[in-house]
Design brief:
The protein has 256 residues and is an alpha/beta fold. It has a single domain, classed as Spore Coat Polysaccharide Biosynthesis Protein SpsA, Chain A, CATH 3.90.550. The protein contains nine helices and nine strands. Strands 1, 2, 3, 4, 5, 6, 7, 8 and 9 form a nine-stranded mixed β-sheet that branches. Keywords: Transferase. InterPro entries: Glyco_trans_2-like (IPR001173), Nucleotide-diphossugar_trans (IPR029044).
């Protein structure tokens, strides 16, 4: 299936071996889309050679490279994806993970079926130290559906979006701020909660992404936070969003 309204953007810096796996997993997807954009944050390794190899191996895939003149840092590179996103839908994937070959097709079909309501789709992840893109199980035909007026409640109760495999409605994605300076390395919790204030969210079941872990990963250390001030900011923001959802539910019930 060809999805002309979708672009995939991958921010990257000095992860050539893992980027190769990530790109191969995307290029072997059963779906096709307009293009893959690699946002190269002035890598000093053989990133460009890996991209050239992938372009030759998968000539049917349209791959573009945008290279920063200097390293602007990981948060700023993610913020730049909002400028590069111009299609109706955009997927922002990590440069060291592998995406299930059926996931994008599954997600885009759900977008089409729920076009007027859904603003974001994510899916289940396996956290692995050795990521590959082989021997996937079939992607299940099931998902959770979170309506906007109950979104943060269901994210906290059942499960929140996996940041590394989110696909967004672009106009909504571009309107939400990345705020790592306020919320620290867990800023994605607030980013996705605020995004889902603007519409419904679908969480696809199964192993949709193989999420790379490593010894120096932020997930494996407290040295980079979350720090007390960041946790407090997150809790304050979640409370604010949760209160707004409760008001929406009350208004909905009154109108009904």
């Amino acid at each position: 299936m060809f999805y002309k309204d979708l672009d995939v953007i991958i921010p990257t810096y000095n992860r050539a071996p893992y980027l190769k796996i990530a790109l191969e997993s995307l290029c072997e997807s059963i779906a096709t889309w307009r293009k893959i954009i690699i946002l190269n944050n002035a890598s000093t390794d053989n990133t460009l050679e890996v991209i050239e190899y992938i372009c030759k191996k998968y000539p049917e895939r349209k791959i573009e490279v945008v290279t920063n003149k200097c390293n602007i840092g990981n948060p700023a590179n993610f913020k730049k994806t909002q400028t590069l996103a111009t299609n109706k839908y955009v997927a922002i994937f990590h440069d060291d993970d592998a995406i299930h070959p059926e996931y994008i097709d599954r997600a885009m079909q759900l977008f089409i079926e729920n076009e007027k309501k859904v603003v974001m789709i994510s899916g289940g992840a396996s956290a692995l130290y050795n990521v590959n893109h082989e021997n996937w199980s079939i992607c299940p035909d099931s998902y959770w559906y979170y309506p906007a007026n109950k979104n943060i409640f269901l994210q906290l109760l059942i499960g929140r979006p996996i940041f590394c495999n989110c696909i967004y409605k672009t106009d909504v994605y571009k309107n939400v701020k990345y705020e790592p300076e306020k919320f620290g390395k867990l800023h994605d919790i607030i980013f996705m909660a605020k995004l889902c204030e603007q519409g419904d969210f679908i969480f696809v079941h199964g192993e949709c992404v193989r999420w790379r872990q490593h010894a120096k990963s932020d997930s494996n250390t407290l040295k980079t936070g979350p720090f007390p001030s960041e946790i407090l900011n997150i809790l304050k923001e979640l409370k604010k969003i949760f209160c707004l959802e409760n008001k929406k539910k009350q208004l909905f019930c009154v109108n009904k």
